[in-house]
Amino acid sequence: MSEHQTAEVDDDNVVDLLDVEECGKAGRKPPKARRYRIRIDKERYVVEVPEMTGRALLVLAGKTPPEQFTISQKLRGGQTETIGLDDVADFTRRGVERFMTLPLDQTEG
């Protein structure tokens, strides 16, 4: 285990803290965990759920109102997928590395 992944595993083979980016870069299927360390842009966050909506990820990253931003996930190999506000990002999916946000273009009105 690396410095980013806690080695403590309980009787149900659940890891205490899983670094999603590290696991994704290694191409491993993430094990069940109590907490997940995710990266949104340059910041890292620890969450206690295995999945979140695009809206919840944007709010967590301080991108409010979330309707003015887009979020995508970077997968192993450089592929990216856009996550809609109500779409679910699954931290236990193989290959998920990190999340990136962009402000939506504002038009003068």
Rounded mean pLDDT score: 90
* Share of helical residues: 10-25%
Q: In this structure, how is the largest beta sheet organized?
A: 3 strands, mixed
Question: Separation of termini?
Answer: 53 Å
CATH class: Alpha Beta
How would the global form be characterised?
A: globular
* Rg measurement, Å: 15 Å
Low-confidence stretches: 1-7
CATH fold-level topology: Ubiquitin-like (UB roll)
Q: Count the beta strands.
A: 8
Helices and strands, in order, run as: EHEEEHEEEE
Can you list the strand order of the major beta sheet? Answer: 1-2-3
- Helix tally? 2
Domains (count): 1
| Percent of residues in beta strands | 35-45%
CATH architecture: Roll
Overall SS class? mainly beta
What does this structure look like?
This protein is mainly β. The protein has a single domain (15-103), classed as Ubiquitin-like (UB roll) (Roll), CATH 3.10.20. The chain has 2 helices and 8 strands; from the N terminus they run βαβββαββββ. The longest helix is centred in the N-terminal third of the chain and has 7 residues, at 20-26. It starts with 14 loop residues before the first strand and ends in a 6-residue tail after the last strand. The model is unreliable at 1-7 (pLDDT under 50).
